[in-house]
Amino acid sequence: MRQILPSFSKRPTFLLGNLDGVAFTCRDFHAEKVSPDSRGLPVVHHSRYVCDLPPDHRFPMGKFPRVLHFLFQDQIVSEQQVWIPELVSEEILNCVHTMEYVKNFVNGKVEEKAQRRTGFPWSKGLVRRCRYETGGTLLAAEVALERGLACSTAGGTHHAYPDHGAGFCLLNDLAVTAQYLRNSSPSPSSSSSSPAGRKVLIVDLDAHQGDGTAFIFKDEPGVFTFSVHGDKNFPLHKQRSDLDVSLPDGTEDRQYLSTVEAHLPGLLDSFRPDLVLYDAGVDPHHDDDLGRLRLTDTGLYQRDLYVMKTVVARGIPIATVTGGGYARDVDKLAVRHSIVHRAATQVWKECGM
Ligand SMILES: [Zn+2]
For residue 246, what are the β-bridge partners? Predict the structure, then answer.
């Protein structure tokens, strides 16, 4: 098999170095509960990543708890590795979303037409789910900044715009996280005479373009948006990311992986982010109902391994979200979504993190 993975000559070092034995408290993070196990890969999950939907709704909501279920069942992850996020505050959401949009969404003042555009009927449970999911991405990023790598079991709602939702996305968790972390702390590499927020690279490998994220950061040089997606797929009208790669329908493992390999190392070396947010959508899989690409399980695993190793090898923290994935068989889909956590576990071990 072709060698696509970078090798490690030494353990990458992160901001705070070796943290074995350091006690974390909830106050240090946007967390309801922090992991007592400082040795394993941090996995961010909340039981309220889900909400009720009408029967036969086409969004596979049941996948979220099943991802963690299979990670436990296959002994990839233990309960001690799980970090539980807080409900994200309206104030944090307002760093990307308009106050009016957030207020109306939280209070259920959403018109029929706007609800149809998102694909979800409004409910209190939906609001709670979206706020925990966004909180989960923020917590994964915060933990990644400390530990080098962390993975949520949801997230990647990249079609949400500042003042409206679309395509199963209500709040843009990736954008909120990137903007909040930029606002909250200067880049470690910036000089004190010209303070600047952390630089964030968003690597969006979901089958659909991250149009909301691209729009939000179109004039923000501190956030670089990189999207690899199906050319013919939703959204019909694409936005301009900092780097877009459009793929034809039916793209298979080999071409897909060489596309990612052709761009990622150069981006990391030229943009030099302080954090990478990685949307590991599994809708490029050949069995996906909406993706139109033809990746295999092995292809997705190699993709995730390659992205994380390439980032971690440079000493850059990376947080992952699960992104899109659509299938009737929720268990099959959940196993597919768990590929990124399995690959992350391999990276965690191989890199001695
Ligand atoms: Zn997608």
Answer: 229
DSSP string of 115-140? HHHHTS---HHHHHHHHHHHHHHHHH
Burial class (CB in 10 A: 0-12, 13-18, 19+), 115: middle
What sign for the dihedral angle of Cα 279, 149, 25, 39? positive
3-state secondary structure of 142: helix
pLDDT in tens, 177-213: 999 999 987 666 665 554 578 999 999 999 999 999 9
- How many secondary structure helices (H) and strands (E) does the chain include? 11, 9
Which residues, by Cβ under 5 Å, contact ligand 1, an ion? 206-208, 281, 283, 324
Distance (angstroms) between ligand 1 centre and the Cα of 122 equals 21
Residue 308 burial (10 A CB sphere; 0-12, 13-18, 19+): buried
3-state secondary structure of 43: strand
- Domain map (residue ranges) of the chain: 26-187+197-350
Least confident range of 34-48, 116-130, 306-320:
34-48
CA distances from 131 to 11, 21, 136, 170 (A): 35, 31, 8, 9
Residues 6+ apart with CB under 8 A from 314: 12, 268, 269
Quick one: tokens of 248? 């034809």
> Once rounded to an integer, what is the mean pLDDT over residues 67-89?
97
- From ligand 1's centre to the CA of 325, what distance in Å? 6
**Inter-CA distances, 125 with 32, 60, 121, 131, 136, Å:** 18, 15, 10, 10, 16
CATH, domain range 26-187+197-350:
3.40.800.20
Query: Which residue from 317, 154, 158 is spatially nearest to 244, judged by alpha carbons?
Result: 158
